[in-house]
Every structure is written in structure tokens, then in C-alpha cells.
Design goal:
With about 260 residues, the chain is an alpha/beta fold. It has one domain: P-loop containing nucleotide triphosphate hydrolases (Rossmann fold), CATH 3.40.50. The chain is built from 9 helices and 12 strands. The longest helix has 16 residues.
């Protein structure tokens, strides 16, 4: 039986008077690739932020590696779970290598600098994700795809085995979507990382994940395998629109596109 690394039981979370998540129960196993899907406003990003304690509170329980999320020191949690937020336009006044090096903060004491082992680890991670070639460039000079690879690299520099990502390919062109999706699949399948990714791309979720969680209006409406997800009636009830199903020419799996209404 697979080891459970994240256990969420009957978790409810509100912001002010508004309930954002209601009675969520889900288990994430070691080396899972879990995609979280659902319409806008379903609570997908909120769930990731609760798992990293960017948002705190709520009722129910969340455990990480067998220990209550509430009991972790932030540095200890960061050694287990890393988070890659959505791309935004904010300026980051660092070179690529400086930014990736920030990922080593859980292992440093206050005001200390990176030791030789930390520097070696940063270099190895940059080589793994193919960002070493622009290590000296400023973050603001990077394209969206390059920046996203650097954000993932910095998350990996934490040494965490659980990687949480919020829409990692949104706003990227097709070339960079392919690169990021390939990187995440490699990290999951070759490096054994547990990946939990919010996505609006159902087809990519089917091709990359082994399990999918679907949220709608803050509630779980589906939890299961990708094969179980790809049912016309289920997807149409989640998204309240019609879909056309076709077979992926290379994978032999069903993929979809929204059906236009005349």
C-alpha cells in the first residue's frame, strides 16, 4: 500500500462570511501526480495555500507525512513541501542563481550564507532543470517559460519531496507548456517527487496525472483516476458546458474540447 504524504479530512475553510472550501477529504500518496481541476472560483488555489499555511485556519484536519500541519515550524514544513505560485508580473531583483539559492533557506541559520554543499546542490538542481545556462541573467529579463522553470527550480532547491503548483503552464506558449509539462512528469516519474498541480487543462491532467480531484463551488465533485474522470456526463456536470471527445492519436486516451453551440 502506498505511503500517504498528505491527508485532508473534512476540511472547511472560510474567508470572512464566505465558505471557500467545504468538507474536503482527500489523500495524496507518495509519488502521486494529482491534478486539481474545476471551474473558476472552485477553491483550487485556496486549497494549495492552506496546505502551505499561506492561509491558516479552517476546521477539520490536514496532516503532512503523518504529522498535523498546525504543529510544523515553517522551516521544517518547507523541507517537506514546496510551492510554486501562478506566474505574475512582479519584478524579482535577483539573478537566476541568486533566486534559486533562496530555496535553501530552510537549512540556514539567521544571517548565514550558503555553504559549499548548498552551492553544489543549487548547481545540481539548475542542471537538472536546464536553467544553469542562464544562471547569471536577471529574473526580469526572462521569458514567461524561462521564469516558470526558475520558480520550479527554486522550489526543488528546498529539497522537498512534495511539490505544489498553481497553474504552472498558464499564460505560456505551446513550446514552454511542453517543456514545463515534460519537466513535471520527469520529476514525478524519474525523481519520485509527489506533484499536486492546479490546472484548467483537463487534457494535460489526463496525460500527466494518475489521479484527479475536481472541485466545484468549494466542494469535492470527483476524486479518482483519469480514466474514471473522462465521462461526458461527469465533465459536463462539473463545467456546465458540452464537450466533444476524441482519441489522442499517440496515447490512445480520450481527450476533449468544448463543443461550440451554433
Amino acid at each position: 500500500m502506498s505511503e500517504t504524504v498528505i491527508e485532508i479530512e473534512r476540511f472547511t475553510f472560510s474567508l470572512g462570511w464566505k465558505v471557500i472550501l467545504r468538507d474536503i477529504t482527500v489523500s495524496v500518496h507518495k509519488s502521486d501526480f494529482l491534478s486539481i481541476i474545476g471551474p473558476n472560483g472552485a477553491g483550487k488555489t485556496t486549497l494549495l495555500k492552506c496546505l502551505t499555511r499561506i492561509l491558516s485556519g479552517g476546521s477539520g484536519t490536514i496532516t503532512v507525512c503523518g504529522k498535523s500541519l498546525e504543529t510544523y515550524r515553517q522551516k521544517d514544513l518547507a523541507k517537506l513541501v514546496s510551492y510554486v505560485p501562478q506566474l505574475d508580473g512582479r519584478s524579482l531583483p535577483f539573478t537566476v542563481e541568486e533566486f534559486v539559492s533562496l530555496g535553501r533557506y530552510p537549512y540556514l541559520s539567521p544571517f548565514s550564507s550558503l555553504g559549499e554543499e548548498d552551492k553544489k546542490y543549487v548547481q545540481e538542481i539548475m542542471e537538472l532543470t536546464a536553467v544553469a545556462e542562464f544562471a547569471g541573467r536577471r529574473m526580469e529579463t526572462l521569458s514567461g517559460g524561462e521564469r516558470q522553470k526558475v520558480l520550479i527550480t527554486a522550489a526543488l532547491a528546498q529539497g522537498a519531496q512534495i511539490l505544489l503548483l498553481d497553474e504552472p503552464t498558464s499564460f505560456l506558449d505551446y513550446k514552454h507548456q511542453v517543456e514545463i509539462n515534460g519537466l513535471l512528469r520527469s520529476l514525478n516519474r524519474s525523481e519520485g517527487k509527489t506533484v499536486v498541480a492546479v490546472t484548467h487543462d483537463i487534457n494535460n491532467a489526463v496525460l500527466s496525472s494518475n489521479r484527479v480531484l475536481a472541485l466545484k463551488k468549494g466542494e469535492t465533485v470527483f476524486m479518482g483516476t483519469t480514466q474514471e474522470l473522462m465521462k461526458k456526463s461527469l465533465l459536463e456536470s462539473i463545467y456546465e458546458t458540452s464537450f466533444l471527445f476524441i482519441e489522442h492519436p499517440g496515447k490512445g486516451l480520450p481527450i476533449i474540447r468544448p463543443e461550440e453551440r451554433s
